[in-house]
Every structure is written in structure tokens, then in C-alpha cells.
Write a structure and sequence with these properties.
The chain has 130 residues and is mainly beta. It has one domain: Rieske Iron-sulfur Protein (3-layer Sandwich), CATH 2.102.10. The chain is built from no helices and eleven strands. The chain has a five-stranded antiparallel β-sheet with strand order 8-4-3-2-11, with no helix packed on it. It has a three-stranded antiparallel β-sheet with strand order 1-10-9, with no helix packed on it.
Length: 130
């Protein structure tokens, strides 16, 4: 692990189209909710803010995917996002997208990439599962 990388979770905490891991991303003095999910074998992370309105997406802690595990769904207005790109696929987000965070998966763990500004902090009890 590079010195400035921050652990988000163990790789085993993320299954394809399954429960995501919430964490807080600190940018300067601001703490912003974020999450990591796995889709098609790839881990992606995004700020937990719908592009339609700045509301958190998950309908329960870590529940971001639709019932088919194919799209990330905003629980408030139904905006649907592609889990690899974060681009809006349907709903009131009209072609906007989620703000991605760069992550690296190696040695059975997921880290915020060292080149990504900001840092990872626990999310009020919803942080990385053990």
C-alpha cells in the first residue's frame, strides 16, 4: 500500500451487483458521503450524491443496486446510473452522472487511489465491514 492510499474495504466485502460499502471522503474540511460497489468484477466508487438532487442514493445502508443488480438507483427519485461509469441511464438525471472517485484493488483490498485528492474516513458506523 502506498503511504497516501487509504483502505476502503476488503475485496470480499463487495460482490457483483450486491451491497456496497459506504465511507466518508474528506476534501479539505468537508466530509462527503461516498460508496464503493462491484459490477462485472470491477470495483467503482462514487460520491453518494444523486446528480438530479444532492441526496444520498442508497435505500438502506449500502443498498445501491436495483433488484436485478444491474443499475445504481437513487431511492428518492428513481434516477438510474450505470455502475461502471456512473452515467445516468434513466430518470430525472437527464444524462448527468455520479462523481467518480479513483480506486485501486490489490492484495484483497480496495483503496482510494493515491492520486485521488481527499481521504477516506469511517461513515458513522457504515464503514468497511470486517
Amino acid at each position: 500500500m502506498a503511504q497516501d492510499e487509504r483502505l476502503i474495504c476488503r475485496s470480499s466485502a463487495l460482490t457483483d451487483g450486491g451491497v456496497g460499502v459506504r465511507f466518508m471522503w474528506r476534501a479539505g474540511s468537508q466530509l462527503i458521503p461516498a460508496f464503493a460497489v462491484r459490477f462485472g468484477g470491477t470495483v467503482r466508487a462514487f460520491l453518494n450524491r444523486c446528480s438530479h438532487m444532492p441526496m444520498e442514493l442508497d435505500w438502506a445502508p449500502g443498498r445501491f443496486f436495483d433488484t436485478d443488480g444491474q443499475l445504481l438507483i437513487c431511492s428518492t427519485h428513481g434516477a438510474a446510473y450505470h455502475p461502471l461509469t456512473g452515467q445516468c441511464r434513466d430518470g430525472p438525471c437527464e444524462g448527468a452522472g455520479l462523481q467518480p472517485l479513483d480506486v485501486v484493488e490489490r492484495d484483497d483490498a480496495v483503496y482510494l487511489d493515491s492520486g485521488q485528492p481527499g481521504r477516506v474516513e469511517p461513515d458513522s458506523g457504515f464503514g468497511p465491514p470486517e
